[in-house]
Amino acid sequence: MTDQEITPWNPDPKAVERVKNPLPAPQFCPICEDHVDVRHHQEIYGAEFGDWPWMYACDSCDARVGMHPGTNIPLGTLADEETREARKRCKEPFESLYKTGKMSRSQAYQALADKLGIPKEECHFGWFDVAMCERAAQAARAVFLESMMRRSA
Question: Which of 39, 83, 106, 136 could serve as 57's disulfide partner, Cβ 3.0–4.6 Å?
């Protein structure tokens, strides 16, 4: 690695290599079709959050998505405010599957993918639209209840 600072324009090759199922960097917004740019959290929020303060953002409609730390790889698809809120809200029931120790994170994603009828490789909240987020929340609750019933049987 060189002495250059790690940025989206100079990503860490090891961090890039760790990303499974990388999506391409968005150039145009799927919502309004305007140009998408790399932005620093400071520009959007007025402060830095998390380990990697970079994101893709559309200035026209405020759609945005974060990046995997140390890379220029988007965490998902660009999302408007409604979709961002749905992703956060609906991921909570899913996280209870592995945060309670009922299963590993990988097992939880596999169980959710199975319940949704999609490949595990496509089971990412950052890829979901509002409707799929709602389906995923319901599916996660069902998986949780099923795991509780198996334990009590």
Answer: 39
State the pTM of this model: 0.85
For residue 65, give the DSSP letter. Answer: E
Specify whether the CB–CB gap between 108 and 98 falls below 8 A.
yes
Q: What is the pLDDT along the chain (153 residues), one digit of tens a residue?
A: 456 899 999 999 999 999 988 999 999 999 999 999 999 999 999 999 888 999 999 999 999 999 999 999 999 999 999 999 999 999 999 999 899 887 899 999 999 999 999 999 999 999 999 999 999 999 999 998 888 787 665
Helix, strand, or coil here: 101? Answer: coil
Tokens linked to 71? 């890379």
